Amino acid sequence: MLLQISIDKLIETTRVLLSIAGRYLLFAGAFYLFFYVWRKRAYWQAKIQQRYPENKHILREIAYSFITILIFGAVIMLVIYSGKHGWTRIYSNISEYGYAYYVFSIVLMIFMHDTYFYWTHRAMHWKPLFKLMHKAHHLSTNPTPFAAYAFHPLEAVVEIGIVPLIAFTIPYHGTALTIFSLYSLLLNVTGHLGYELFPKGFASHKLFKWHNTSTHHNMHHRLVKCNYGLYFNIWDRLMGTNHPDYEKSFEQVMDKRIANSKVYNRELPRELYSTNDI
Asked: pLDDT: is 228 or 40 the higher one?
C-alpha cells in the first residue's frame, strides 16, 4: 500500500515536472528558434540590442532554468497536496461560481501577479538581496527567451510564490490557474525575447502605454535600476520607476525597424558575432 502511494506520488511529480519543462521548452524554444536561428536575418531590424549574446550565456540561462523548473515543481506539488486535503480554495465545478467569475478569476490572477512581481522585484534590487539572489538573472544583460526562467534558486522560490498566494486566498478552478500560468509564461518569454513585437506608437499611446513591451524589460536588464514591471506599466508609472527615455527608446527601435523593413536576409555585420556567438 505504502509502495503504491509512493509510486503514485512519483508519477504525479514526474508529470508536473514534465509539464513545466515542456511548456518552458515549447515557448522559449519556439521563440528562440524563430528569431535567433531560422529568421534572425529577416528580423534583425527588430533586435533591440544590435548584437547577439555568446553561446555560453545562453547555456547559463538554460542551466539556471532547469534548476528553476525543479523548484517550481516542488512548490506546485505542495499546492496540489494542500488542495487534495482541502487547504486551498480550489473548486472542481465551474458552475459552482459561474463562468463570469471563472473569467474574472483569471484577470484577477494576472493583476495580483503584476503587483506581486513589481514589489518583490523592487525588493530584490535592494543591494544585499540583489547580490544574494537577483544578480544571477541580471547576468543576462542581452537576454534571450531562455532567460525567462534563469533565476537563482532563492529567486525561483520568490517567483513561484504567486501560485500558493493565489491558491490560498481566492477561489479558483484548476484550468483557470493553468490559463494564467500559460499567459504568464508567454509574457515572460516575450519580455526577454530581445526583439520588439509591438507597433510604432504603442509605448506612448494613451491606452496601450499601460501594457509593457519587450523594450521596457530589455532596458531593465541593460540599465538595472528602472522598469520593474511585468505585464503592465501601471506600477512603474505610478511609482516613477520607468526609465525617462523608455518611450524614446521604444520609438528608436521602431524607427530602425521601419527603416530596414525592406531589407531581407542580408548579411549581418561580422562584428556582431564571433565564432562563439549565435
From this structure: 228
Q: Grid coordinates in use for 255?
A: 524607427
56-106: pLDDT as tens digits: 999 999 999 999 999 999 999 999 999 999 999 999 999 999 999 999 999
Is the dihedral angle over the CA atoms 192, 165, 65, 126 positive or is it negative?
positive
Residue 214 has a pLDDT of 97
Instruction: Specify the pTM.
Output: 0.91
Scanning the structure block, which residue is given the C-alpha cell 544590435? 50
Provide the 8-state DSSP code for 267.
Answer: P
Cβ pair 125, 225 in contact under 8 A: yes
Question: Which residues fall within 8 angstroms of residue 260, CB to CB, at 6 or more apart?
Answer: 44, 45
Which residues does residue 90 pair with via DSSP β-bridges, in sequence order?
A: 172
Phi, psi values for residue 253, rounded to 5°: -65, -40
Rounded percentage of the chain residues whose pLDDT exceeds 70: 92
CA 222 to chain centroid: 16
Is residue 50 scored above 70 in pLDDT?
Answer: yes
Question: Which of helix, strand or coil describes residue 269?
Answer: coil
Q: Is 167 exposed, middle or buried (0-12, 13-18, 19+ CB in 10 A)?
A: buried
Q: Which amino acid is at 47?
A: K
Distance (Å, whole) CA 142 – CA 144: 7
CA distances from 83 to 10, 19, 125, 173, 270 (A): 18, 19, 33, 11, 55
- Check if the beta carbon of residue 9 is closer than 8 Å to that of residue 159: no
Instruction: State the DSSP code for 266.
Output: P
The answer to whether residues 261 and 45 touch, using CB atoms and an 8 Å cutoff, is yes
For CA atoms 97, 99, 102, 108, give the dihedral sign: negative
Closest by CA to 22, choosing from 80, 78, 69, is 69
Place of cell 530596414: 260
